[in-house]
Amino acid sequence: METWEERKAEDGRLFYLNTKSNETSWIRPEDNKDPKTNPTEWEESITQSGKIYYINQRTSETSWEIPAEVQEWKNKVSALNLQEKLIQENSDAEECEEGQIPDEFLDKDGNPTRKEEIKQAYVQMFQEAGVTSTWKWEDFHRIMRDDPRFNMMKNIAPKKQIFQEYAQMLKRKDREDAKKKKQVARENFMKMLDSSGILRAESKYYKTAHFFQGDPRWRILEEKEREELFQDFLDELERRDREKQRQLRKQQMQSLRKLLDDREDIDHTMKWGIIQRLLAEHPLFKAIDKLDQLTVFSEYVLDTEKQVSEAKRLEERTKARKRREAFRELLEDLVKTGEINAASHWRPIVQKIKDDPRYLNLVGQPGSSPQELYSDIIEREKEKIKDHKEALSDSLLNFQITPTTTYEDILEHSREALDSIPDNLRVIVFRVLYDEAMIDLKDKERKTQKELNKYDDYLKSNANIASNSTYTEFENEIKEKFVNLSDTQLRDIFNKFVEKLKDEEASEIEPGEIKNKKRDRKEKDHKKHKHDEKHKHKHRSSRSPSHKKHKHKHKYQD
């Protein structure tokens, strides 16, 4: 078990303590020492600015350059790391199934060879010899040719190949380390310039270089690279200065705008010259560029005008809303008094209210016009009529409205339904319900008459019907063709038709003359009807619009 532990002294230096004997040492004893632990007296440290330096734990000597013994130890650690990597790769390969072993590690019988073990042994020799990326094969050969392990391979070619692979690996690592070191050096150089506090965007390299020549962070870079980084830093300073100026300008302009907003003796209607005189001695105003002053004032005027305009627009909008509300109240008053109902027309209403201020204040104003608001009221009243009419109709399910039906008949049959309707709407609801019933009745009569005419044509055109025919013989055919007529109607008309045929045969009239006369009379009536309809259409077309309007009054009008 390891008995030495690493401790830190008050001055920050490391020392080692033997936990059994309490013996101390600045240098780690060799017992049980990890080969990757620094065996030298030098310790690597980093300054606050990020610069790496080395300090001797025994003598307290410092150095910016890496000591030779530290470099040698680092080379050995790198070699050990590489060896561990190769061993791990070999271990992973051994974990594969036998069928997955690469061919180069199999002998002619298909068994694994010692080739990889031999390769690892050569790598270990490279590490022990301290091979670096600059070595040639001849250098290694001269040093290690007497080592018994050197002849594990008889042919020189595979030995050289292993050496070349190892050397290439070291070169790649050296390039990566150099790149990282260069990047750290560049970063430390920029930090050095930034922390100096003596540089300005207009500083010159040749005038300020002597301030930094004693700093290792300056000397570690080549002259050309120093000049390039120096200029990059000045560019960054210039960018910072521009950003500071931009922020300062923005802040000053915002402060001036607040000053204009807060001053009670300043408003947006004033001329620029007056504003200049009022603020001439104000330190904030004097600190701002004249063009920026004018820009702030212009924005102040535009923004204030927008605010005033918006306030006026909102005020006018409020007034317009109040005017509409007042006019609606006027219309509602007329609804309550019964002067406006679902059957009312705009013209007589406007004649009645034309001198009312609530009407006059709304005429010509933006938004809904008086007539549009009136139309909204009428539509609402029509919906009320519709609802009341449907409720009254539901109460009359077993009541048939005929042309002789009166308001009193409805009242007697559905008093409760009528009582639920406002007084000023009852008669109107009745008229609407009555008119719709009459329209339905006329439509039904028209359809029935049309069906009767078709039935009459059928009887006259059917050659199978004779004076001795009975309804029963044709009943099924007739009922199938004329489903909208009742059986009584069909039977009575059929029997009357047969009786006429009998009369025809009994009289001196030639057979078929009754049918022909009736057919001729029907054709004559049909032609006369078409002539009357055509004449009526022409007569309607010649009427004036006012006549049409008078003719087609609202069906709800009393």
Helix content: 55-70%
| β-strand number | 6
Q: How would you sum up the global shape?
A: elongated
Report the C-alpha radius of gyration, rounded.
Answer: 59 Å
Mean pLDDT over all positions: 78
| SS summary, helix count | 20
Beta-strand residue fraction = under 5%
Spans where pLDDT lies below 50 across 5 or more residues:
89-108, 535-558
End-to-end separation: 120 Å
Give the biggest beta sheet. 3 strands, antiparallel
Order of H and E elements: EEEEEEHHHHHHHHHHHHHHHHHHHH
- Across the major sheet, the strand order is 1-2-3
Secondary-structure-derived class: mainly alpha
Question: What does this 3D model show about the protein?
Answer:
The N and C termini lie far apart (120 Å). The model is unreliable at 89-108 and 535-558 (pLDDT under 50). Among the domains are: 1-66, Ubiquitin Ligase Nedd4, Chain: W; 445-551. Helices cover 63% and strands 4% of the residues. The chain has 558 residues and is mainly alpha-helical. Residues 115-169, 182-236, 319-380 form the FF domain. Residues 1-31, 36-69 form the WW domain. InterPro entries: FF_domain (IPR002713), FF_domain_sf (IPR036517), Prp40-like (IPR039726), WW_dom (IPR001202), WW_dom_sf (IPR036020). GO terms for molecular function: RNA binding.
